[in-house]
Amino acid sequence: MYTLSDKICAMLGEKGVTAKKFFQLLSSLNDLDELPDVIADNKRLESLFGDSYVSVCKALKDCEQVRLFSDMERNGVEVITWFSDKYPSKLRDIDEPPYVLFCKGNVSLLNKDGIAVVGTRKISSYGRRVAADFTRLLADDFVIVSGLAYGVDSVAHEVTLQEQGETVAVLGSGILNIYPSANEGLAKRIVDNGGLVVSEYGLRAQPLAYRFPHRNRLVAGLAKGLLVCQAPLKSGTNSTVELALQQGKDIFVVPGEIYDSGFSGSNNLIKSMQGACVTTPRDIIDYYGLDNRLNDSKTVQLNFQEQRIVDALSLGGKTFDQLVVETSLQPSELNFLLANLELRSIIARLPGNTYRLYGGIE
Amino acid sequence: MLALVKSYGLNGLDGFPVQAEIDMHSGMPTYDIVGLADTAVKESKERVRSALKNSGYSYPVASVVVNLAPADIKKEGSLYDLPIAIGLLAASKQIPYDTLKRAVILGELSLNGEVKKVNGLLPMIISARQQGESVFVIPQQNADEATFIEGAEIYTVKTLLETVELLTNQSDKKPIAIRSWANDSVYKSNDNDFKFIKGQFAAKRAMEIAVAGGHNILMIGPPGAGKTMLARAVPSIMPNLTFEEALEVAKIHSVSGQLDGGFVYERPFRTPHHSTTMVALTGGGNKARPGEISLAHNGVLFLDELPEYNRQTLETLRQPLEDGVITVARNAVSITYPADFMLIASMNPCPCGNYGSATAECRCTASQIHRYLGKLSGPLLDRIDIHIEVDNVSYDDIHSEAYSEASSEVRKRVNKAREIQLKRLMGGGKRCNAQMSSADIKKYCKLERDSAELLKASFEKFNLSARAYNRILKVARTIADLDGSENINYMHVSEALQYRTLDRKYRV
């Protein structure tokens, strides 16, 4: 059960009291046991919280606490606070640590080694491929931390789930107010499959613009290293990178085409040597000295026509029509072969009826 | 004296007999038309008067009453000019009266006495034939419409004078020759042929399957990829238009005055613009006219830029897509028009059009793409069996001399597949695989064990939604039919899987 200080943290969090204010309050105490007394002391609260103290007092004193906790229980939300044992120690050292974390799912993931997979919401097909291929391999060894946004974040979570790995989604909105709402289903699948969704904001807090860069310190904080899959010049990713640098985390960057403005942020990180340039997920695994696995390269049996398709794709992605020309197969036959190769994870289909070899960078 | 002239009126696609009764008595020269005539009918007064005068007859100086019986049904249009003029001549004894008794007379008059084309002639003649009429006098310009009506004596006239000569047996005019359908049923090869479409192998194959099974199809591709060209070529691979089908189409087109070629020899191809209104699409207006979906009956309705259409307008397509008919109800009338069309829709993959393109960069945000795709409702997409992505054709493709299959060859395969389906579905009033119900699917789309396993695996792998299941089976059935195969095998299912692009939930 929650201790009194846990409950107080949860209520303050629900009311939107910032970490800064909370730690001011905390530092004005000599002993933790004083907390309830302070809360009862309107004058002291007023000096600490200014204008918002009335609502804070109200929250703390009247029956709203009952409502909050029954609400949390009903929705399967667990709260982890600055005072609980489960609070991840790695967050205690970061700037402005969260004093409360509303969690849904497997909270033990907070204390495991993670890699943050981050990048733009506006993802190119190359960026998608990078995010998917890196995540696929990293998910074996790490918890994949990301922000449940569109683009790279979604790919990272989705691929981790496919690989039955563990993933943590850090939200910039309330845990019962998933943003973007299109990812509600994804959030649910994360929780159902042993992952974790976490937010430091009140249960139904709005997805306000400032909250996303703010929560990025948790994305970085919960991870050992940060992998930048695709970042244009102006992107939320840059704030995550900056925070991760402040926190002393490892930054890994996958390079992109120099002419592609969608990658100018990534490439700048490499140029300014803020991040290590990585070209395969093995680079990261080797960096952490984890590569003690057997090389389980599988061999696949291809028939003559399948081999022709694979050969045609070995030099890069091709559209359906190009394949028809190069393999001189009938469209009906080619359709059948492509569907099969895709099912066997030998090739992948991209938007625009384009095909490419699967993975291919191990 | 009194003269009675037989004519016809139109209610929806059915004709009803109208008798033009012209009476004349002495008194102040007046002219009255009764019998719920609309403005066009009432204005016939001036046309008739001038036509008579300019044809060398005299306009009677008398009190004239024209009644169009039955008097309680609305009459509209200019087609009563000729019967009224003839009736006036008979009533004023300028021509003998007993000549009028047998013929049904239809036609608009010009001031100089010429007989002009009228709308809706074909359905009126068909109804009249069924109700026992056999002699018709129609405008020369409408001749083509009537040339397939068997067992009737149809005379065409160019002028009022000619009409009078015909009716008074002073001319040796012969009834028009009845043509038999087979002579005209050959599809007239035109610019929209598959052989002119270079590249686009995937799309052409998908079109062939769609037409073979009567499936609706959605093309997704960037601007300029050739979506419209592909759609326009579709009628050229559709099965031959049978006479019954052609007649249905011609009736609808005749009613709305769009029978340009005189008759319908090709399957209609309709492309309403995306600013079209609900009424224009489904039919209506105060006269409950057929809409675009009825004009596309037995042919193709092509909706370019599908998400740009008004959402509500699109939703009205749901019922006709299911039933093949649309009932248009307006204040006084309720008319059921056939609307059995193949829907071809096209859209861009995102608002800027370049998402997933190999050559151009997409400028849209993820949420913009979501919103764009979200404009299409699930129930509507549910009725579209095949989704296909179409990409730009390269310069090499355009300039290649490589042989592209002609439409006539594709159509041979389509016809064969249709025959198989017709035989299989016989009795149920269904003609093609797309019309199969869940029960039919259970009965006719049995999968072999390995294909069933394949389907199961692909559902997991591709994140397919439940609604995709029946669609894939139907399309697989059609692919098997094209292949001439009794069973649906592994190959057929895997190809069908390729046509569910939008069901892959993880697109964005």
- Amount of helix of chain A: 40-55%
Distance between the termini of chain B: 80 Å
* Estimated helix fraction of chain B: 25-40%
The tally of strands of chain B reads 18
What structural category arises from helix and sheet content of chain B? alpha/beta
Q: Stretches of chain B where pLDDT falls below 50 for ≥5 residues?
A: none
Instruction: Write out the strand line-up for the largest beta sheet of chain A, numbering strands in chain order.
Output: 1-2-6-5-4-3-7-8-9
Strand content of chain A: 5-15%
State Rg of chain A.
Answer: 24 Å
Mean pLDDT of chain A: 87
Approximate strand percentage of chain B: 15-25%
**Helix and strand run of chain A:** HHHHHHEHEEHEHEHEHEHEHEHHEHHEE
CA-to-CA gap between the ends of chain A? 46 Å
Radius of gyration of chain B: 28 Å
Please count the helical segments of chain B.
21
Number of strands of chain A: 12
Sheet having the most strands of chain A: 9 strands, mixed
Average residue pLDDT of chain B: 87
Please outline what is shown here.
The complex is a heterodimer of chains A (362) and B (508). With 362 residues, chain A is an alpha/beta fold.
